[in-house]
Amino acid sequence: MTTPASAPLSAATRRSIVLLSLATFASMAAQRICDAMLPELARVFAVSLGQAALVVSVFAVTYGVAQLFYGPLGDRFGKFRIVTFATLGCCVGSVAATLATSLDMLVWARLLMALGAAALIPLTMAWVGDTVPSDQLQEMLTRTGLGSTLGIVGGQLAGGLLTDALGWRWAFAFLTLLFGVVGLLLWGDLRRQQAAPAVPALAAATPQGARPGFVKQALLIITGPWSRVVLLMALVEGAVGFGVLAIWASHLHRSLGLSLSLAGAIVALFGLGGVMYMAVGRHMIHRFGQQKLVLLGGLLVGVCALVLAFTPHWLPAVPASLLAGFGFFMFHNTMQANATQMAPGARGTAVSLFASSLFLGQSVGVVVAASLIAQIGTGAVVALGGAVMAAEGVFFAWALRRRDAQRNS
Question: For the whole model, what pTM was predicted?
Answer without folding.
Answer: 0.68
